[in-house]
Amino acid sequence: MSSRVGILALQGGVAEHQRSLNSLGVEPVLVRRREHLEDLSALILPGGESTTICKLLDLGGLLVPLGNLIRSGLPTYGTCAGMILLAKDVLNTRPDARGFATLDITVQRNAFGRQADSFECVLDFEGESLPAVFIRAPRVVSCGDNVRVLAQVPEDEKIPPSHRGAMVAVEQDNLLATSFHPEVTASTYIHRYFLKKAGISVASEVIAH
Ligand code: GLN
């Protein structure tokens, strides 16, 4: 059976992830309703507005079944708002916001400031230099022993001191999360990293980052 890679498509940066996957020869399933959850091999939770996505998940009856799938081991990659949806604890959110609460991290929403404070840098992601774009991004303020930190904002003098060292990419078991948006860059490194983690082979490993 071929692999079905889903992108949660209720709100946010769906088309950008779709383009990244397409460039790796993967045609994703856009997950909008319960029936789209069937036989998923992996799932991307895109960036957007986490409180809105939570509300739409709840209204559409997806919050519980999708949460069950994620907890039962579905490889899941959360970008920005997607990271917030996966986190066990969220600071600076609405009291009624509910996510999947599976990734053992505390995240602070909008931790680097407002939209105008969005920034870019080059990150060391496990030895790989990657372009990273932060848009009203969260930062991981603490994480459990079972969580591996894969990238931090560099100690670069062009970056505001308060941002430096922030944990911005983590993984735990079947879960991967980044504060930043690889899907808006030309690099498919993180998508390939995720698909490999999910046991999905892509058309070519030689496509340039
Ligand atoms: N600030 C947004 C939130 O809290 C996340 C922004 C993003 O996904 N680019 O949901």
TrEMBL record:
<comment type="function">
    <text>Catalyzes the hydrolysis of glutamine to glutamate and ammonia as part of the biosynthesis of pyridoxal 5'-phosphate. The resulting ammonia molecule is channeled to the active site of PdxS.</text>
</comment>
<dbReference type="Pfam" id="PF01174">
    <property type="entry name" value="SNO"/>
</dbReference>
<dbReference type="InterPro" id="IPR021196">
    <property type="entry name" value="PdxT/SNO_CS"/>
</dbReference>
<dbReference type="GO" id="GO:0005829">
    <property type="term" value="C:cytosol"/>
</dbReference>
<feature type="active site" description="Nucleophile">
    <location>
        <position position="80"/>
    </location>
</feature>
<keyword id="KW-0378">Hydrolase</keyword>
<keyword id="KW-0663">Pyridoxal phosphate</keyword>
<feature type="binding site">
    <location>
        <begin position="48"/>
        <end position="50"/>
    </location>
    <ligand>
        <name>L-glutamine</name>
    </ligand>
</feature>
<protein>
    <recommendedName>
        <fullName>Pyridoxal 5'-phosphate synthase subunit PdxT</fullName>
        <ecNumber>4.3.3.6</ecNumber>
        <ecNumber>3.5.1.2</ecNumber>
    </recommendedName>
</protein>
<comment type="subunit">
    <text>In the presence of PdxS, forms a dodecamer of heterodimers. Only shows activity in the heterodimer.</text>
</comment>
<feature type="active site" description="Charge relay system">
    <location>
        <position position="181"/>
    </location>
</feature>
<comment type="similarity">
    <text>Belongs to the glutaminase PdxT/SNO family.</text>
</comment>
<dbReference type="GO" id="GO:0042823">
    <property type="term" value="P:pyridoxal phosphate biosynthetic process"/>
</dbReference>
<dbReference type="GO" id="GO:1903600">
    <property type="term" value="C:glutaminase complex"/>
</dbReference>
<keyword id="KW-0315">Glutamine amidotransferase</keyword>
<dbReference type="GO" id="GO:0006543">
    <property type="term" value="P:L-glutamine catabolic process"/>
</dbReference>
<dbReference type="GO" id="GO:0004359">
    <property type="term" value="F:glutaminase activity"/>
</dbReference>
<dbReference type="InterPro" id="IPR029062">
    <property type="entry name" value="Class_I_gatase-like"/>
</dbReference>
<dbReference type="GO" id="GO:0036381">
    <property type="term" value="F:pyridoxal 5'-phosphate synthase (glutamine hydrolysing) activity"/>
</dbReference>
<dbReference type="InterPro" id="IPR002161">
    <property type="entry name" value="PdxT/SNO"/>
</dbReference>
<dbReference type="GO" id="GO:0008614">
    <property type="term" value="P:pyridoxine metabolic process"/>
</dbReference>
<feature type="binding site">
    <location>
        <position position="109"/>
    </location>
    <ligand>
        <name>L-glutamine</name>
    </ligand>
</feature>
<keyword id="KW-0456">Lyase</keyword>
<feature type="binding site">
    <location>
        <begin position="135"/>
        <end position="136"/>
    </location>
    <ligand>
        <name>L-glutamine</name>
    </ligand>
</feature>
<feature type="active site" description="Charge relay system">
    <location>
        <position position="183"/>
    </location>
</feature>
<comment type="pathway">
    <text>Cofactor biosynthesis; pyridoxal 5'-phosphate biosynthesis.</text>
</comment>
